[in-house]
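To close the section, here is one more complete example, presented without commentary so you can practise reading it yourself. The ligand is nicotinamide-adenine-dinucleotide.
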Amino acid sequence: MAYENLEMLIDGGWTNGTSGSVEQVFNPATEEVIGELPLAAPADLDRALEGARKGFEVWRRKTAVERQAVLEKAASLMQERREEMARNCTLEMGKTIAESRMEMDFVMGVTRWYAEEGKRAYGRLVPPRFPGARQMVVKEPVGPVAAFVAWNFPGVNVIRKVAGALAAGCSIIIKPSEETPATAIAIARCFQDAGMPDGVINVVFGVPDDVSRHVLGSPLPKKLSFTGSVPVGAHLQKLAADTLKRCTLELGGHAPFIVFDDADVEAAAAAAAAHKFRNAGQVCISPTRFLVQKKVHDDFVDAFVAKAKSIKVGDGSDEANKMGPLIAPRRLEVMQRFVSDAAEKGAEIHCGGERLGNQGWFFAPTVMTNVSLDMAIMSEEPFGPLAPIASFDDVDDVIDEANRLPFGLASYAFTKDGGTAREVSDRIEAGLVGINHVGISTPETPFGGVNESGYGSEGGIEGLEAFLRTKFVTEMGV
Ligand code: NAD
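Output:
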C-alpha cells in the first residue's frame, strides 16, 4: 500500500499549485523520505480564498439536514478507509498503529457528532416590548474560516475544525502541518467524495508564516482557529486583529497530575504512565508535572518507573511497539536539553534520559525525581516523554504549584475524598479537569484552555457555537 498522493485541494480541484516548490515528508521511525509535498504560491492562496468565498455562498444555503447527509457520508467513507488512513498517520507522524486507529475512530466520532449537532443551531424568540413585534435571535454561520493546525494529531486537530465549521455552514481553508499532510488530505478526500460542493473545503501547504500572513491578511476569512504552540497562537491572533477576525486558540499547557495520599496509588500510576507516554508525550493535555503527596510519593514513583521501563519503544507500524518516535530531530535536542538542565540542577533520573538507537527519532520514556522549580522542565512544556515527579504537603500547597504557570489547559487529580476533589476542581486554573481518570477529550464535550493556553472550545455544543454568529431581527406588521 502506497503513502498518500500529496496534493492540495483548492476550489474543488486537487492540484500541485503553481510555485513548483516541494517539501520532503519523513517517516520519523526510519528517517526515510516518504513523500514530496507541493507548496502553495500566493496565487494559489488567492484561489483558495476566492474558492472559500464562493463555497460559503453555496454551503450556507443548504439546509442543516442536507449538510448532515454530506458529513454522514464522509464519516462512512472514513470508516471504509480507516486502516489505510491509520497506516499513513503512523508513517508520517510516528505514533503506534493502535493509537492511529483510535485517532481515526475519534475523527469519525467528531464528524458524526457535528453532523447531528448542525441541526441544533437554534435561535430563540424573545417576548417583545413593543406590541405586535416579533423579536428573533438567529444563529448564522460566521463565514469562511482560516485554520492552522499542528502535527501531533494529524487527524483530530484537523477534524475538530473542519467538521465544526462545516456543520455550522461555514467554508474553510485549512493549513495542516507540512510534517503530517497525508491524514488531512485523506480526510478532505472523504468529504469531496461524499459530495461536498467546490470551495467549501480548501487544504493548502506552504511556508507556515507566509501562508498565515497571506490568508489572515485577507478580509475574507471571518474566523481564525488554531491548534499549536503558545507563541505561534499569540502571533496569529495579532495577524487576525487587523481585520478583527474572531479567534479560537487551542494552545499548549503544562498539566499538573496530582495524587493525594488517599488515592488508589496503583491505579493512579497506571493511568499516569499510559497517559504520559501516549504519542510519546506529544499531546497538549499530556500530564507534565506529577505532584504526589509526601506519604505516597515513593510508592507512586516505584509503580510509575516500573511502567515506564516496561514500554516497548520502536517503529509504530509494528504492532508490538507501544511508543513511537518524536516527530523530528529538533525535538530530540529539546528533550536532551531538558534532561541535562534537570540533571545538572540535581534531579535523579530513574530511567531513560537519552535517545534510543541512531536511526529514527526515538527518545526513551524518562522519569525524574528530586526536581526543583529552577529546572526548565517545571515551567516549559516538554512535549515529549519526560515525567518530572515532585512531592507536596497539603491541598493549598499543591494548588499554588498547579496555578503557578500562566497556562491552563488540562489538569488531573486522584483522590477518594469528595471534598478534596471539589476543592481542586473549583480552585484550579484549567479548562479541563479529570478526577480519578484521564478521559477529558470526547467529541461531545467542550475542549479548550484558559489563560495562556488559549480560549474557545472545540467539541460539544460550544464547538458548534464557535462557528456561529448571532443576529437579532425584530419584525412588525408582517
Ligand atoms: P512550532 O510552534 O514550531 O510549531 C507548531 C505547529 O504550528 C506546526 O505544525 C507549525 O507548522 C505551525 N506553525 C508554526 N508557525 C506557524 C505560523 N506562523 N503560521 C501558521 N502555523 C504555524 O513547534 P514544534 O517544534 O513543531 O512543536 C513543539 C511545540 O509546539 C511545543 O511547545 C508544543 O506546545 C506545541 N504544540 C502544541 C500542540 C497542541 O496541540 N496544542 C500541538 C503541537 C505542538
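Once you have examined the C-alpha cells, check your reading against these statements. Residues 106 and 156 are 7 Å apart (CA to CA). The mean pLDDT is 98.
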